[in-house]
Amino acid sequence: MHARCNRIVAWVVVLCMSASSVWAVDRFAEARKETYTPTEANLKARAWFREARFGLFIHWGVYSVLGNGEWVMHKTKMTVEEYEKLPPQFNPTKFDPEAWVKLAKRAGMKYITITSKHHDGFAMYDSKVSDYDIVDRTPYGKDVLKMLADACRRHDIKLFFYYSHLDWHHPDYWPLGRTGGHSGRPEGGDWYRYLDYMDAQLAELCTNYGSIAGIWFDGWWDRMKFPETDWRLNKTYSMIHKLQPQALIGNNHHVDPFPGEDIQTWERGLPGHKTSGVEYELEISDLPSETCDTIGRGWGYYAEEENLKSPAKLVGILVQAACYDANLLLNVGPGPDGTIRPEFTERLKKIGDWTRKYGETIYGTRGGPFPVRSWGGSTCKGDRVFVHVLTWEGSELALAPLDRKIRKAHTFDGSEPVKFKQCELGVLLQLPERAEGVIDQIIVLDLE
Ligand code: FHN
């Protein structure tokens, strides 16, 4: 009797597991049926993106007036009527796009991704399809994205626009998803009219700001529990790719990539690891990867910052991302006066001190041959492997087998040879004395 029971239990477990995996895969199968062939211009842009390795994420909006992050409308259950009192208080007279772009370059960043419309629905640019925007609703009255785009062009920094599918303000974002339930919007709304509005704004961003590097979507996860939602991604993505053939589309939806996407995003986590908001382990696709992270507590501006990551920690995240063949998009949240807090600018400059000296070990590299481990990992370029020893106490470091022969091993500046042994079981490095304060002990392996 027991044996029969056990067999039944075993079958039930197998059926549940297969059902759950089918549920995870089939929930979005419809959207995955689309086909997408990237253009030459897009493939060239993907190659550039992989080489770029480091970008500046900017979360900036009228929410900064309250100094409580970019989710303040939802967190404090503000209605649309209450939230609309913020734009008239937003007057960032100290906004200096030139300074922002120079700061990004000083850090060693190659591109900027700035919020054009976050979940609050407020456009930080001069939209013609809505007057709920910085030009029409604030005393400042200028198109800050245009000002930033011009500064980026002057300094050879590429510009991506972040755009939120999720909208806590628009009456046609209906039925609601899991957020924005306290906005006080009338029940009912025309979903496809909202999608048309969203496409019209995206067309503005793809038309009025010159050549853009791409669109970084977010907020799709708001309706994750309603897999029948028709987001019309293929229509939106096709429009973007038509208007801006070189533009790269990324979508921070926390599921595996959909056709039409050119970047795979990983939020606050490294590729293949469970990152924030992800329900199940995601596969690392063959798309260029980018992880995004914060310096402090959150993405938007907080009047009181806490838990600021040290420059060493931030360099470590940049290096680990590169070891995973991924970029790092590192975030700042400017204040209501248009400035970036000094604790952030100081850290970006310190990261720049590191990238200026060691940048060649991440820019233009790919993930290295040795698996990423808690001590660090490796990047590679041509016949060179850069072993990044971030945290390691021992004097010997054992690495996985390498399918190419090491000709020479030495410190990054070439001043000191590094003893090594190599066989089919692996590589053993004799690490030199680690100088005080070294963030990343880089050992260079020159291969035959
Ligand atoms: O809800 C947003 C959040 O405000 C921020 O924009 C981050 C950035 O990756 N994305 C969402 C959270 O997953």
How would you sum up this structure, described in words?
The structure is a single chain. It is built from 12 helices and 16 strands. It has 448 residues and is an alpha/beta fold. Helix 10 (233-243) links the parallel strand 4 and strand 5 (248-251). Helix 6 (97-107) crosses helix 12. The structure holds ligand FHN. Ligand FHN is lined by residues 59, 70-71, 218, 252, 267, 277, 292, 299.
Summarize the entry for a quick read.
By secondary structure, this protein is α/β, with parallel strands linked by helices.
Structural class: alpha/beta
What is the count of DSSP helices, taking H or I runs of 4+ residues? 12
> Ligands in the structure?
ligand FHN
What is the CATH level 1 assignment of the largest domain?
Alpha Beta
One letter per element, helices H and strands E, the order comes to: HHHEHHHEHHEHEHEEEHEHEEEEEEEE
CATH architecture of the largest domain: Alpha-Beta Barrel
Number of extended strands: 16
Cα radius of gyration in angstroms: 24 Å
Q: Would you identify the CATH H-level superfamily of the largest domain?
A: Glycosidases
Largest sheet composition: 8 strands, parallel
What's the overall average pLDDT, rounded?
A: 93
State the domain count. 2
